[in-house]
Design goal:
The chain has 315 residues and is α/β, with parallel strands linked by helices. The chain is built from nine helices and twelve strands. It has a domain of 143 residues: Rossmann fold, CATH 3.40.50.1440. It is 37% helix and 22% strand. Helix 5 links the parallel strand 6 and strand 7. Helix 4 runs parallel beside helix 5 and helix 6 packs across helix 8.
């Protein structure tokens, strides 16, 4: 099944990276924007909700999450007038992994159609992998559809890139999907977003996108793919026919679609693939394979809250 985007739309950005993506998505969708962060520097001129951690300078994920729960009523009031919420979160960062489970749950309980974009960490960010896995599992549970981009598999396909270049490529790929939300079908299942760097020929770009996809999920789990051909107006028709035939042969003709997008950027491929079953992100949380019905602490994510006890807060 496909998710139907309904207006009015609210884009919510969590933390630093999420807020920057939300502003771009707001402009692309001609929608409203809300930034939620524990750092006021992320707010700029946008509507915002400050998650205060009081005097703690370097708060933990659990403390930020507990502080987000304190402003849940304010978040619920902000989203009340909207039919669809687009959530932007960098689960490699503290703010994103802390707030995403809470905000997505608020949207779910309010009956909003939630489209969640989640960016996963590089594998060398070992201290962030567990929290990102926990957050993603809850976000997927609360969302109508979840679109995941893995920084680590992008770097594996392009080991010569620095982290900033990876972020720029990832953000660009996300914006291509955001711009298509009103005109293209988005699967209700979890989707993996893959792409390549610019400046390659189209066959190499497609190869890198597929390599990135199969680094996240097994080929048998891919159920449907949307191929965005960026810079289509500058690409010979014969080459487009070639990659269309190649994609159909790999992904099954009935389950692949091509979307031609004109752009001033370098020509490249952006692929959005819906998957069923396990992905590599399920291994980020060692306890993630336990079904929800057998999980005792599902209703409340691991949070640090003030219980008004006469004890010092240790963070």
């Amino acid at each position: 099944m496909s998710f139907q985007v309904k207006e009015p739309i609210l884009v919510i950005g969590l933390g630093g990276i999420g807020s920057k993506l939300a502003v771009q998505a707001r402009d692309a969708l001609d929608s409203d924007c809300l930034v939620i962060s524990n750092d006021k520097k992320d707010f700029a001129e946008n509507a915002s909700i400050h998650v205060s951690t009081d005097s703690i300078v370097n708060p933990s994920v659990q403390l930020i999450r507990g502080s987000t729960c304190k402003v849940a009523d304010e978040i619920e009031a902000k989203i009340s007038d909207y039919s669809t919420v687009v959530l932007m979160s960098n689960l490699a960062g503290k703010a994103g992994s802390a707030m995403a489970p809470v905000v997505s749950e608020i949207c779910d309980k309010a009956g909003k159609g939630l489209v969640s974009f989640a960016i996963m960490p590089f594998k060398y960010e070992k201290d962030r992998i567990f929290n990102s896995g926990v957050a993603l599992k809850r976000v997927r549970e609360n969302s109508e559809c979840t679109i995941v981009l893995d920084n680590d598999s992008l770097l594996d396909s392009n080991p010569d890139l620095n982290s900033k270049a990876c972020y720029d490529i990832a953000n660009s790929a996300i914006m291509h999907v955001v711009k298509s939300l009103k005109i293209s079908d988005i699967s209700n299942e979890t989707s993996v977003l893959t792409t390549s760097k610019g400046g390659q020929n189209m066959e190499d770009s497609l190869r890198d996108s597929l390599k990135m996809l199969y680094g996240n999920a097994s080929p048998s789990s891919v159920k449907r793919s949307m191929l965005y051909v960026v810079g289509a107006s500058n690409i010979p028709v014969g080459i487009i026919n070639s990659i269309t035939s190649l994609t159909s042969g790999i992904l099954n003709d009935s389950n692949s679609q091509i979307d031609m997008t004109s752009s001033l950027e370098h020509s490249k491929v952006v692929m959005l693939s819906s998957v069923q079953g396990m992905t590599k992100f399920d291994n980020y949380d060692p306890l993630g394979i336990i079904p929800r019905k057998d999980t005792l602490d599902w209703d409340m994510p691991d949070s640090s809250i003030d219980c008004e006890l006469d004890l010092y807060q240790i963070e």
